[in-house]
Amino acid sequence: MRTLKGAVVLALIAGLLVGPAGAADPLKIGFITSLSGPAGVIGKHMKDSVELALDHLGRKVGGLETEVIYGDDQRKPDVGKQLADEMLKKHKVNFVSGIIWSNVMLAVAPTVTGAGTIMVGTNAGPHELAGKMCHELYFSTSWQNDETPEAMGKYMQDQKLTDVYAMAPNYAAGKDMISGFKRYFKGTIVDEVYTKLGQQDYQAEITQLRAKNPKAVFVFYPGDMGIQFLKQYAQAGLRDQIPLYSVYTVDETTLPAVGDAAVGNYEARYWSPDLKVEASQRYVADFKKKFGYTPSYYGAQSYDGIMLIDSAVRAVKGDLNDRKGMVAAMRKADFKSTRGKFTYNVNHHPIENFYLLKAVKGASEVEMQIQKTVFENHKDAYYQECPMKW
Amino acid sequence: MRSRAQAWTLTVGFLALALVPVAAALTHQPFYLDLFRRMMIFAIAAVSLDLILGFGGMVSFGHAAYLGIGAYAVAIPAFYGIESGLVQWTLAMALAGLAALVIGAVSLRTSGVSFIMITLAFAQMLYYLGISINAWGADDGMRLARRSAFGPVDLANPYVFYYVVLGLLVVLLALGHRLIHARFGVVISAARSNEPRMRAIGFATFRYKLAAFVIAGAVGGLAGALLTNQTEYLTPSYMHWTRSGDIMVMVILGGMGTLFGPVLGAIVFLLLEDLLSAWTVHWQVVLGPLLVLVVLYARSGLYGLLPGGTHRG
Amino acid sequence: MLVLEQCLNGLQFGVMLFLMAAGLTLVFGIMNLVNLAHGSLYMVGAYLATAALGRTGSFLIAAVFALVATLAIGMLVEVVALRTLYERDHLDQVLATFGLILFFNEAVAIVWGRAALFTTVPRALSGFVELLPGLRYPAYRAVIILVGLAVAGLLYVVVSHTRLGMLIRAGASNRTMLAALGVNVRLLYTVVFGFGAALAALGGVMAGPIYTVLPGMGEEILIQVFVVIVIGGIGSIRGALVGAVVVGMVDTLGRAFLKPALSSTLGPSAADSAGPALASMLIYILMAAVLYFRPQGLFPAARG
């Protein structure tokens, strides 16, 4: 009896494995992001944006029937790599796209490019891939991680701000943000404080901050850390006393949770829902209509990723084997991006504008609005390490 | 083997694993090679945890730390140009075993909840250390340029690597089987049921438990070395306590204290993760209660469902 | 003045930990049950309070609702899933309640989604209190300290001076005798567990406005609560209070003053990394030290 039970279980598993290989769709795109866990909200933004892009293209990317296969990397590089392997070998995708986290990207990108498939990164911007590890088959529709704090640093330098108090979590990204900031900001930094990754209570750090009496505060606190920090900063009464400048801390994925505590916060970004670009306005309006919430830059990048792929496939008239042709087409970046026109740098990272954003109280919710342009056609700091020439 | 049914089950199981590459080649689905190889690597980790958790009753919530140490022991030498597999993997087992010795020496002075907390604390400390060392990539991690070199045995060849992992799994299981049926294993299990009695009889249970802890740590280090080779990537997140939780789930699901159960647990858990997450992101809402049920009513886990499964080890 | 304010911060953090630790240690002391899902009850309390606040607009009503609802949920979980675990060893309890954590995290995500919920401090409490000339402290955090100390006082009164407390103490010493004397031990356990769940929920209700309410919010604080219990002594409420305040102080003061202290010896750039790394490990090091010298914790509860 037990033997029979075991055999049935094994047979079921085998059946699920072999399973339906799917109808013979001409174009397959693998999209890897984090759909479970605390970062799942970001993954949702990205997935919804991909779906909207497909809708706008009539479910045909580059004129071909398209199937997008989503994968949940659970924020683990080894799972991400396994997903990439599965998409490449089992589903035989023509493109791999997505990826939120730098460490997952560093595990996945070489796997994809090593297999001769084009990878379109729509968020993570580790400097290795912009510099030494740049690859002909890797394109980014987002940015290089350091560019955003560089923009904030430049703005604060131009404003001649001094006595800045800097805070970030104590891990690689945190340190990179502060060093990127210091690349352009040359004023006095009162103190650089690194906190524990995932820390919930910042009251002790806020007390220290107040005692040092800085003129401005610069922070990097992604995800739930940002929500907590902002709320506690406001509750300590500092919101009206010391202006807060941040990167990757306040955005459309966290604004709903923070609400008024974010008002007055400055951010640096290459895009905002209120950007006056036609493709962007269309994206934001249709997104709100279809999904009922305001999209974030994670989404805008993912939308652009699909549009970039679309332009490439169109250029080679659907001949997916013409890798060189698609790469050449992608280098032209000839599509309607949500950030307006942008060009690709030699390392396949966008040369784009960066803006200063401010959180303001809108009609019904707190939203980010562009205040001014900080960088025009900004290049990242690593492209000279990239050996590619074209 | 003391049970024919068990021998039959194991033979079928290992034969199936050995034939996966053949099936993968025939059906032109090389992905399954990678998938099952990853499962076997975690199976090795789960079996090492079962030694102390299932047999010894020591709930170590920090087992992923040893995988992390093993992973670093491969990636860092490679970063500096030392690519010999023999050096890397021996280093992995030695360092992980050493760490287990230190952690065990402190932790085993306590028991119960304190033991759990202390093992967790050590793992967390190592994780925080890992993410703050920028020279080795911190939490961005590091790529492994080439897999460990073993002379003529080329791990870059996925089939060769697969059989190496399978071979290691079989060897480890055979060794483990001998261990738990030897005096050592009996003392550990007995110490789990009634430690004061064992001490009264004259066994220095602390030393036995520490030895088991070190062995489990060393094998965990080997699993970490294999994992880095598999992913060709190193990240301190291998050491995060939620990874320890994952391995624990594999042990529970497969069957605690059955030695072979965790292999099945690792395979099923990772299969479910791969298949179910394609359907719904909320698959853990089913996994949670499933675990509770297994712990309450089916201690031998999935392994207990197979013929010969109720026979322990 | 700075040190004084940081001490207050440490006290407040400690009090928050105490709210959680009290429930956990109560359950462990009486029923010998290690409950990893305690953090999940904290999370459920925070979610229910936030949802109720959205519906009613009153923090007080939301808090009461969350406490009562979580008490009920706690008792339900006890009856359905935990009853069989009392006889089992701690290993099984840890593993089973670990399964419960996975379930609760996902269940909450299914009902409310994965994005963090919006919470804010109630308007009445968003100001400051002037404790000493020049020392302004956020009113909400002062309230947390008061609530925590009040709960500590209440627990003391209940455990030492009421019949229920007597039963609890008797059950901790010798539950077989208690049952033999005709007390409905099953009901007692269910009530005590519910009580513990309500304490966890109170922690969640108070934490909601200042921390982030999202799935998995209980894990981070659960680890710290376990450290408190291990240091204080498992099963002892007095130990939980002392342990919580000690951990709160050590962690807060470490985060505030360790880096400046190291700066003078190691130099500023080394202290930049070493300071926070060490500060995050401080409570674990403290726990290891306590366990080394006194493995049963500072105030071990007498066990029968």
Which two chains form the greatest contact, residue counts included? A-C, 39 and 46 residues
CATH architectural arrangement of chain C: Orthogonal Bundle
Largest sheet: spatial strand order of chain C: 1-2
> What portion of residues of chain C is helical?
over 70%
Please indicate the count of domains of chain C: 1
Low-confidence region ranges of chain C: none
Roughly what is the average pLDDT of chain C, rounded to an integer? 86
Task: Explain this structure.
The complex is a heterotrimer of chains A (390), B (313) and C (304). Chain A has 2 domains: 25-143 and 276-341, Response regulator (Rossmann fold, 3-Layer(aba) Sandwich), CATH 3.40.50; 147-269 and 355-378, Response regulator (Rossmann fold). Chain A contains 13 helices and 14 strands. Chain A has helices at residues 2-18, 40-56, 77-90, 102-114, 127-130, 147-158, 172-184, 203-212, 223-235, 255-258, 278-291, 297-315, 323-332; strands spanning 27-33, 60-61, 64-72, 95-98, 118-121, 138-140, 164-169, 189-195, 216-219, 244-246, 266-269, 343-344, 350-361, 366-378. In chain A, strands 7, 8, 9, 10, 11, 12, 13 and 14 form an 8-stranded mixed β-sheet that branches. Chain B has 313 residues and is mainly α. Chain B has a domain at 33-247. Helices cover 72% and strands 3% of the residues of chain B. Chain B contains 12 helices and 4 strands; from the N terminus they run H-H-H-H-H-E-E-E-H-H-H-H-E-H-H-H. In chain B, the strands form 2 sheets. Chain B has a two-stranded antiparallel sheet with strand order 1-4. In chain B, helix 1 runs antiparallel to helix 6 and helix 4 crosses helix 5. Chain C has 304 residues and is mostly helical. Helices cover 76% and strands 3% of the residues of chain C. Chain C has helices spanning 2-31, 38-56, 59-82, 90-112, 139-161, 163-173, 175-180, 185-207, 217-232, 237-266, 268-293; strands spanning 128-132, 135-138. Chain C has a two-stranded antiparallel sheet with strand order 1-2. Chain C is globular, with a radius of gyration of 20 Å. The interface between A and C is large, with 39 and 46 residues.
